[in-house]
């Protein structure tokens, strides 16, 4: 490992970035260096701007990917190489993140997905926990058996996104499924251990592969990936009458504005609503006419 790379990792750790975020930032700078064929400290600010334009125009990278690249490069060149912030900001302006409406599954579609024959007991249980507790894939992978608080009806999410702990719901049905899963696999260190790396948890890529296999088999839309199960959890709870502040705590959102994205409702739910006019007694008006 080069001295520059280690210095970068040290700065990331000092600011409390999660391991996945650190790896992502380091990967961004490594790809930049490979693109130009030289050490990143020899790359000019103009070349940084040209690289981001290359990702945008030639590579057709999505907005989220570009935002991650810009954030990582800004961090590296300002905090590690100590280039003036104004210069780095001018070369790498922040990109506005689009406000996308979360895509969800109906309860019937979630049922179809979880009943896909291609899913092993482990993968079915994992996707069930993801949906039933509203977890991110990285969070469900890092669950340990002791995080299932059966007596309290809660799941303890340790060091989730933003290095924050929180508690989310553990329904009786999910607890029943987890107990059936435990009787088969008897997990020790990790609730969902890796099949390939003993002593390690299942990786995000394995979760995504299992999800997409089930999607293909059932003919469902991907809805943007396994994260749509978390979106579905949030929307279904709101439709069931759970207040937004409670949902914010279950999801681990820092801002209430982030949770408010789920205030949209499915078309099926809207069609069942009665408008306010239905509550009015207009009989006298009809008689007058």
Could you provide a short overview of the structure?
By secondary structure, the chain is mainly α.
Characteristic terms for this protein:
289 residues, mainly alpha, DNA polymerase, domain 1, hpI Integrase, Chain A, 2 domains, three-stranded antiparallel β-sheet, 3 strands, globular
The profile of the biggest β sheet is: 3 strands, antiparallel
Which strand order does the major sheet show? 1-2-3
CATH class of the largest domain: Mainly Alpha
Count helical runs: 15
- Straight-line N-to-C gap: 86 Å
Low-confidence stretches: none
CATH topology of the largest domain: hpI Integrase, Chain A
Architecture (CATH level 2) name of the largest domain = Orthogonal Bundle
Description:
The chain is mostly helical and 289 residues long. It is 55% helix and 5% strand. The protein folds into two domains: 3-91, DNA polymerase, domain 1; 107-271, Intergrase catalytic core (hpI Integrase, Chain A), CATH 1.10.443.10. It contains 15 helices and three strands. It has a three-stranded antiparallel β-sheet.
């Amino acid at each position: 490992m080069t001295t520059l790379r280690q210095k970068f990792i040290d700065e990331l750790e000092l600011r409390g970035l999660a391991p996945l975020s650190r790896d992502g930032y380091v990967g961004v700078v490594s790809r930049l260096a490979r693109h130009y064929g030289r050490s990143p400290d020899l790359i000019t600010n103009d070349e940084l701007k040209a690289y981001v334009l290359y990702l945008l125009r030639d590579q057709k990278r999505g907005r989220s990917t570009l935002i991650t690249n810009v954030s990582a490069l800004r961090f590296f060149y300002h905090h590690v190489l100590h280039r003036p912030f104004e210069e780095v900001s001018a070369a790498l302006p922040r990109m506005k993140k689009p406000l996308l409406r979360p895509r969800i599954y109906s309860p019937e579609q979630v049922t179809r997905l979880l009943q896909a024959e291609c899913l092993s007991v482990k993968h079915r249980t994992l996707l069930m926990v993801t949906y039933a507790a509203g977890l991110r894939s990285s969070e469900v992978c890092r669950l340990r058996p002791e995080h299932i608080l059966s007596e309290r009806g809660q799941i303890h999410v340790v060091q989730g996104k933003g290095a924050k702990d929180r508690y989310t719901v553990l329904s009786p049905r999910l607890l029943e499924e987890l107990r059936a899963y435990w009787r088969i696999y008897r997990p020790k260190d990790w609730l969902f251990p890796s099949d390939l790396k003993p002593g390690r948890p299942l990786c995000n890529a394995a979760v995504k592969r299992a999800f997409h296999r089930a999607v293909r088999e059932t003919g469902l839309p991907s809805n943007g990936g396994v994260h749509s199960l978390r979106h579905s959890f949030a929307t279904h709870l709101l439709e069931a009458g759970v207040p937004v502040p409670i949902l914010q705590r279950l999801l681990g959102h820092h801002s209430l504005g982030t949770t408010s994205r789920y205030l949209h409702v499915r078309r099926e739910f809207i069609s069942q609503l009665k408008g306010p006019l239905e509550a009015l007694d207009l009989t006298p008006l009809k008689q007058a006419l």
